[in-house]
Design goal:
alpha+beta, 1 helix, 3 strands, about 15% helix, about 20% strand, flat
Length: about 50
């Protein structure tokens, strides 16, 4: 999780379509752009910078 708990709470409400890689609201049955039912939650972990 990041430094900002309010932002983390908003990010957790986002679902990503596995087909078109677009963002969707939480609780949707299918993607609003392509109609695919294959959704995943947005990743909450921060990526570390490579040294």
């Amino acid at each position: 999780m990041g430094k900002f708990p309010i932002a983390d709470a908003e990010i957790s409400k986002i679902w990503i379509c596995k087909r078109c890689k677009r963002r969707n609201r939480a609780g949707v049955e299918k993607c609003r752009w392509c109609g695919s039912k294959y959704l995943r939650p947005k990743k909450k972990a921060l990526k570390a910078k490579k040294a």
